[in-house]
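Researcher: Structure prediction, please.
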Amino acid sequence: MRNERLQNQDGLTQKFFRGAPDLAVEVLSPDDTVEGVHQKLTEYFQNGTSIAWVINPGERTVLVYRSIEPSRLLRATDQLEGEDVLPGFTFPVERLFELPDFGV
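Model: Predicted structure follows.
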């Protein structure tokens, strides 16, 4: 959430922010449906979200949305960028799908 949106929020409570985040991230699960994800994205963008990333572990891809329609498909060789929401943020897509090493 950008600071300017937090500062302009009427009735901000310590429990939650009333509205959509500037950046939404959805990680698809086997139970997700196209309709369900589309509905979430519609709600996000209707309520002020600027960018959404839909991460598909099964295909190892990320769909980047700037509106209800996807604007880019990223594959493992691409870089995820924060654009104007997280200026300077970049992250290799392939790293999203690496399993953590818990030293076991």
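Model: The mean pLDDT is 86.
Researcher: Thanks, that helps.
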